[in-house]
Amino acid sequence: MASFAAAQHLLPASTFRSSPLLPNRPSISALSYKPLSFSSSTAVVFLGFGQAGVAIEFKDRGLFVQTAAVRHLMGSLTRAEGLRFAVVVARFNEVVTRLLLEGALETFKRYSVKEEDIDVVWVPGSFEVGVVAERLGKSKKYQAILCIGAVIRGDTSHYDAVANSAASGVLSASLNSGVPCIFGVLTCEDMDQALNRAGGKSGNKGAEAALTAIEMASLFEHHLIQ
To answer: What is the pTM of this model?
Structure first.
């Protein structure tokens, strides 16, 4: 009612009655209204009937009435019980990937994922991670697949080919299987960078990827079930 009162105060009643453009337009009391907002200091009320109407802007925030709440769907880190995960780990640069795996497994345990609900699959290198992740996803045994690897730049362009293929392979695995496949493959300039991201001063990216896996698995399981 505050919005109607403000509209009647700001605009003469004749504005809402018949006009050359809108003949026999009903009075303001018969109009529908819908509050809208475009900034923190401005409110807009749409007055109209059918497909016709007029938008009125009010500077007073107190006149704004919120519309129905939008649903926000999110995965939960506290609802991991019963979820199953597979971890695909590249053996190449194992000094790094084993540390990433340890960080991931510790994180799963911390968030109540049981050991019997985790399968670890080793593959030769990061290039092979994607195809195995897709096969595991299509088995429908797991709610998420965590993909771990480490690609370190060398003297040739081999690094670029493997890094790009690993990323596209994990993405394709997700899209083709319908199961979240989480990219936990490090792409670093040298070994120091990789070790810093495998439990060093930059944290453990395996642990971070495990958190992403839990959240995505929860999102799919509790909100996006087909």
So the answer is: 0.69
